[in-house]
Write a structure and sequence with these properties.
With about 650 residues, the protein is an all-alpha fold. The protein has one domain. It has a two-stranded antiparallel sheet with strand order 1-2. Helix 7 packs across helix 20 and helix 8 packs across helix 15. The protein starts with 19 loop residues before the first helix and ends in an 11-residue tail after the last helix.
Length: about 650
Amino acid sequence: MAISQPDPQIQPTESPRITGRSILLGLLTAGLMAYSQNVLEIVLHAGSLVKSSFPVALILGFLLWVVINMFIARFAPKSVLSRHEMMVIFATMWIVGMMPGVGWMGYFIGALPAPHFFASPENRWAELFLDELPRWAFPEPTPWIMDRFYFGLHTGEYVPWTGWMPSVLWWFSGVLAFMAAGFFVIAIFHRQWADAERLTYPLVNFPMDLMEGFGEGRALPKIFRDPIFWAGFAWTAGIIGWNIINFWFPNVPRITLFDSINTKSMTVAQSFPPVYLRVLPLVIGLGYLCSLDLLFSFWFFGLLAVVKMGVINRTGFTVGLEGQVAKGGEIVNLESHGAMTVLVVWSVWIARRHLIHVAKTALNGERGDGPISYRFAVVGLIISVLYLCNFFISLGMSFSLAIVHLLLMFIAYFATSKFIAASGFGYLFPVWIKGSGFVNAILGTATLSTREMTAMHLVNSGVFYGGGRIQTMQVLPHHLKAMDDVPAERGKHWTSGVVFLAFTMGFFVCAATIIYYCYRDSALFLRSWTLWEGPLSIFGGIGRALGETEKTSFDLQKLGIWLWGAGIAALLAGLRTWFPRWPLHPLGLAFQYTTGPRYYALSILMVWAAKLLIVHFGGPRLYERAKPFFYGTVIGYCTGIGVGMVIDLIWFPGSGHGFHNF
C-alpha cells in the first residue's frame, strides 16, 4: 500500500521535452529487445511475439518500463521519467518490435546464403536465375560463408563477418531509403491527419493512459489503482496461468479459449472458406479504442468475403483470359486492392489544400507547421525515391517496373499507416503489399525478362523490408503525434533522429545476433522456419515463376473487377459523406479477406457488441469507466505470456509451448 501513497517530492507537472537520457535508454532497450526476441524465437524456441503491428513484445517491454518508473518515482522521485521520455522509449521499442525473427530479419538473413547453398540439379536454380542475382546483394558462395552458416563452425574458426558486411550494408541502404521516404511522406501529411481529419491515434492513447497519475503526486499510475482494471487483468492472466499448470500436470484440462486459429475454425458449407472463431484478448482490448463503424465494417465485410468466395467456388465462376483465370481468392483480392487504392486517392484529394500549402512553404524556404521543415521533407522525399528507384534497377528491374512498384508500395503503406492511426487496429495487413500481385494479375509478366522477374520476386519477398508485417511505417504517425507538443527549444529536432537511430540499432543488432547463432549452432539445427524453409519457399517461388512456359498478359477482365472494388469503395465513401450515420466504412472492403478480419471475426464482433451496449446505455461516461477493464484484458494477456515464456526458459529450454500465435 505504501507505494501508492502521495509523495510530495514527485512533481505534479512536466515540461514536454526529448531528453538525452530518454534517447539513450530507448536505444539500449531497443537493442536488448532485438537481441532477446531473436534468441527467444530462433534459438530457444520460446515463442514469437511479433505477430501484429502492435506486438506483444512491445506491450511487455513498455509495461516493464512502467514498473521500473514506478520504483523510480517511489525511491528517487526527482529522477522519474516524464510522459514524453517514456513515449520516446515506447517509440524506439515499437520500431524494433516487429523486426526480430519471423517479423523480418530472420527471412532476410536466412535468404542471403540460400540460393547458392540450396541450388541443385533438381530445382534448376542455377539454370533459371542464379546468374541474374546481383553479386553485391549476396555473400560470396564460399564454404566458409555458406557451409559453416548451415552446419556450424569448426573448432578454432570464427564468424566471417567481413564476408557478410558488404551485402548487409547494401540491403540496409535500400531499406533505410524506403523508411526515410515513408517518414517524409508522413511528416508532410501529419498536420492534415492530426488537425484537419482529426485521426484519433488510439495506439498513442493506450501507453499514455497507462502512465496517467505519475504527475499527480503518486508513484502508482491511476489505472493500476482501479479494481475494474484488475478484473480485466484477472480473466486473461488467469486463463493462461491455469494452462501453465498443464505443463507439469498433463491430466489437468486446459482452457482452450485463447488457442490459435489451427484449432478455432468452422466450415460453414462445402467449398466455403473456414470461419475462424479465434478469441484474441489483444483484439478485444485494443479494439475497444476503435470506432464502432470501423469494427462493424471489419466484421461485416470479412464475413461477406467468406460468402462471396464460397459462392464463387460453388458456381465455378472465374474471371480472366484463358490460361490465367482468377478464382475466388484472387477475385476478392482484386476487389480489395481497388478499394484500398480509392482510399489512398481520396486521402490525397481531401488533403489537396494542405499539400499546396506544403509546396508553397517548401518553395519559400519557410519551416512550416509540420514536425520537420517542409522543404527538408520534400527534398528528402525526392532523394529517397531516386535512391530507391536506382536500388530496384540495380537489383534487375527496369525503370518502368521500378516506378510501378514504388507507386504500388506507396498505396499499401500509406493506407496501412494512416488507417492504423485512425482505427488502432493492429492487424491491418494489406493485399499485394509490394505490388507483384497486381503486376501478375492485371499488368501481366509476358514482357518481363528473367532478370526483371527475379528482381521483382526479391523485392516482394520478406528479404526487402519484411513481408506482410509492415515495418516501421505504422509507428511514425503515432510517434509524431506523441511528440506534437514538444517545443523546438526542448529537443523537437530529435523527433526524427530517434526514429532513424532506433531503426539502425534494431537492424544491425538483429542481423548480428542471427548470423552469430547460425554459425555457432548451425542454421539447420536451429530449426527455424525463417532460416531455411522460408528462404527455400522464396527462391522456390522464383524458380517456379521462371519455369512456367506461359507468362501472364494484360487482363482487362481482372482490371474490371479491380475497378468494381474501386467503385464500391467510392460509393461507400460517398454514402458516409451524404449520410453521417451510414454504418459501413470502405476500409472494411479494402481489408475484407486479410489476416485481421479473417482470423479475428469473432473477437471483433465481441468487442463491437460490448462497446455498442456500453455506449448506448451509459454514454461517454460509462465508456471511459469501462476502458480500464479492456486495458486490463490486454495487460493480463501479455503478462501471462511473459510469465509463461520465463517458465519455458527455466524448465523447458528449447521446447517452448508457443503461447501466442495467430
